[in-house]
C-alpha cells in the first residue's frame, strides 16, 4: 500500500483546482479521500479507475492510496496532476478543461 497527498502551492486561493487523472493502473486500485484536513469529520471518498479524473477544489486536498489487487504481481501506475488557478479556468471548470 502506498499513500500520497495532493496539495496546492502556497499561493493557492479559493476557486483553484487540481485535476488528478489515473493515466495507468495495472494490478492496483486508487482510492482518494477529499477533505480540507485529514482530521475533519467531513470528507468525500472516491475510487479512481484507469482513465478517471478526480477534481479537487481549494482548500480541499486529496489523500490518495494505492492498493495492490494481486499479491504476487507488482503494480504499475501513472497519475497526472493538473493545477489551475481560478483565473486560468474562468467562471466554470468546463471552460478550462474543454479539449
Summarize the structure.
The chain has helices spanning 86-89, 93-97, and strands at residues 2-6, 17-26, 28-35, 44-48, 53-57, 61-68, 76-84. By secondary structure, it is mostly beta strands. It has one domain (2-8, 16-85): Jelly Rolls, CATH 2.60.120.
Word description of this protein:
With 99 residues, the protein is mainly β. The protein has a single domain, classed as Jelly Rolls, CATH 2.60.120. The protein is 9% helix and 51% strand. The chain is built from 2 helices and 7 strands, in the order βββββββαα. The strands form 2 sheets. The protein has a 4-stranded antiparallel sheet with strand order 1-6-3-4, with no helix packed on it. The longest helix has 5 residues, at 93-97. The chain is globular, with a radius of gyration of 14 Å. The model has no long low-confidence stretch (mean pLDDT 85).
Give a quick set of tags describing it.
globular; 99 residues; Jelly Rolls; mainly beta
Amino acid at each position: 500500500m502506498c499513500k500520497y497527498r495532493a496539495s496546492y502551492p502556497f499561493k493557492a486561493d479559493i476557486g483553484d483546482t487540481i485535476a488528478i487523472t489515473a493515466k495507468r493502473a495495472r494490478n492496483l486500485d486508487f482510492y482518494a479521500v477529499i477533505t480540507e484536513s485529514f482530521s475533519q469529520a467531513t470528507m468525500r471518498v472516491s475510487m479512481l479507475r484507469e482513465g478517471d479524473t478526480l477534481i479537487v477544489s481549494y482548500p480541499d486536498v486529496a489523500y490518495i492510496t494505492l492498493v495492490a489487487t494481486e499479491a504476487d504481481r507488482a503494480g504499475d501506475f501513472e497519475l497526472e496532476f493538473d493545477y489551475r488557478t481560478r483565473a486560468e479556468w474562468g467562471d466554470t471548470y468546463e471552460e478550462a478543461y474543454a479539449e
